[in-house]
Design a protein that fits this description.
Elements: H1 2-17, H2 19-23, E1 33-38, E2 41-46, H3 47-63
Antiparallel strand pairs: 1-2
Protein name: DUF2905 domain-containing protein
Pfam families: DUF2905 (PF11146)
Transmembrane segments: 6-22, 43-61
Length: 64
């Protein structure tokens, strides 16, 4: 359980860092990705994109 929590956290950090580049491909705007403004700052929580990318990476690793 702890391993998956760490994987999801790392994926969220990577997606947030690559957000401008990934948004051109449509990631970060999927249903399930949360975007809101709080205290004058834009917050983004890409839950659906994280799950999608985690599945893609997991399948790629499994096939290799």
């Amino acid at each position: 359980m702890l391993r998956w929590l760490i994987v999801v956290f790392v994926a969220l950090v990577v997606i947030e860092g690559l957000a401008p580049w990934l948004r051109r491909w449509g990631l970060g705007r999927l249903p399930g990705d949360l975007n809101f403004r709080l205290f004058g700052r834009q917050w983004s929580i890409p839950l659906a994109s994280t799950v999608l990318l985690s599945l893609a990476v997991g399948l790629a690793i499994k096939w290799l």
